Amino acid sequence: MSFVVPAPRFTDPAVFGQVAVLMGGTSAEREVSLQSGQGVLDALRSRGVDAQPVDGIPALVDAIRAGGVDRVFNILHGNRGGGEDGVVQGLLEALGVPYTGPGVLGSALTMDKVRTKQVWIAEGLPTPRFLRLPPDRDVRAAIADIGLPVFVKPSCEGSSVGVARVADANGIEDAVRVAREYGGEMLVEPLVVGDELTVGILGDLALPSIRIVPKGEWYDYHAKYVSDDTRYLCPGLEGDEEARIGEIALAAFRAAGCSGWGRVDLMRDRASGELLLLEVNTAPGMTSHSLVPKAAAQVGIDYADLCWRVLEQTVPADAASTGGAA
């Protein structure tokens, strides 16, 4: 599969003005966000962008009020103080400050795995069957309805936070405990045996897929952000299958109201070969272990160039006539 990558729209960093790299926050994914944010900050500064770190939403409001923000590179992860649930997007829309990533609708919807899957089903897009698990729902009964093995996961968290993998009856009590500690809505879906894949989205381009091969049994938080033993095969598929996964990922991204950049996670069922959508990440990780930079590198976009291309999505097309255009 061949990729045609357009040239960057701008060459002059002055076109971006003062950029707040929004990171950290108070969500469960704070530490990952800080790592991602530092990488983005260093990359933008290496290209001459006037970029400053901002930790969390209250600090961002202060910076905007002080007149020190022309646009925001949002690398907050998660919800409840993170930047992927539509809250910060709504704030920035109200204040008229451009920002990276999907808007209010796409961010809010995809933070909720249950509602995202409902939209995909309505659009005829493939996703594993699931049961919604309200806080008062019997976890054991839901697992019995789906049938082992299953994943029990929060509907509104990312980075594998709060996920219970239930392979047999011995794991059911752990799932009950996880659900009780989390306290919010969860979902139960079958554990798909097969290949774990992800597709980065950059504008209208689906980047090459990545097949993730963890050393352990599954791709958990440790495998994502700590382990150096996880293997990443890019492209993850070949020929028609690679073209197909890009089409599905882009369709899923758009169906969920998303634009700009992000990442779509899927599984390929080993028995049937079917590609199944899992979730969308609207502010993907940008750490040394992160996946979108790995995929972008396969088509000649290095880390700093990727950050630049994401940021330039916040600049209107007609800005090319007023300065900095390539």
Automatic annotation (TrEMBL):
Stated name of the protein:
D-alanine--D-alanine ligase
The Enzyme Commission number assigned here is 6.3.2.4
The entry assigns this protein to a family as follows: Belongs to the D-alanine--D-alanine ligase family.
**Entry's localization field:** Cytoplasm
- Give the keywords, sorted: ATP-binding, Cell shape, Cell wall biogenesis/degradation, Cytoplasm, Ligase, Nucleotide-binding, Peptidoglycan synthesis
Q: Which cofactor does it need?
A: Mn(2+); Mg(2+)
Q: Which domain of life is it from?
A: Bacteria
Q: What residues does the ATP-grasp domain cover?
A: 117-312
